[in-house]
Amino acid sequence: MPPTLPIAFVAPELSDEQWLLVAVWGVGVLGVLISMFGLMLRRLREARSERDAGEHLARIEKQIAALAERGEGLDLRRLEHVLLDIRDGQKRVEERLVAALETRIDGRGAPDITASGGGIAERIVTRLVALGYEKIELVTPGVELEQLAAKGGEVTVEAQKAGAQHKGHVSLRGGAIADVRLRSIYEAFP
After folding, report:
1. Is the pTM of this model over 0.70?
2. Which residues contact 99 (CB under 8 A, 6 or more apart)?
3. Distances in Å between the alpha carbon of 25 and those of 22, 78, 139?
């Protein structure tokens, strides 16, 4: 057997154009590998953030469950009654404030008719708004209002409450509102 020579890699002779083509091909392959590596890193980060979001949602779910357990002990009817009491109390306070503003007292303890004469229409409207009326119209002429504020009497008014038309009178005594009597037109005409 003839002696064997070790096989060595012998690079073929390539022209400059062929070497340039091989270099461009190598750079392209290297670019593809780098972009794939970057894509893998981005997907890994997304997976981590999704995992963290899942953990965050699990914590929120535990907090909601704890709130639901505490909420089961609430008596909704009792809460409703408390809220209704608060609303009624607020209405009473509002009515008292309006009444206090209407009966401004001067230093002698008598109603200040000079202050109330010009603003009687405004005070009547304020009282009716406090009672829940809207679209308020004073039927009595403005000239008569000042006279009624000074000597007393009744002011004719029309207003709406809960969508129903109401008509009636507001009684004045000593420059202050003494009484409010309005009836629904449905009650007035059977």
Report:
1. no
2. 127, 177
3. 5, 80, 97
Check residue 167 and report its DSSP letter. E
d(CA 30, CA 167): 91
User: Which residues are within 8 A (CB) of 177 and not within 5 positions of it... i.e. 6 or more apart?
Assistant: 99, 102, 123, 124, 127, 170, 171
What does each of the 190 residues of the chain score in pLDDT, given as a tens digit?
566 666 666 666 878 888 899 899 999 999 999 999 999 999 999 988 888 888 888 888 888 888 887 767 677 777 888 888 888 888 878 877 876 766 654 333 444 444 444 578 888 888 888 888 888 899 988 888 888 888 889 999 999 988 889 999 999 888 788 889 999 887 756 5
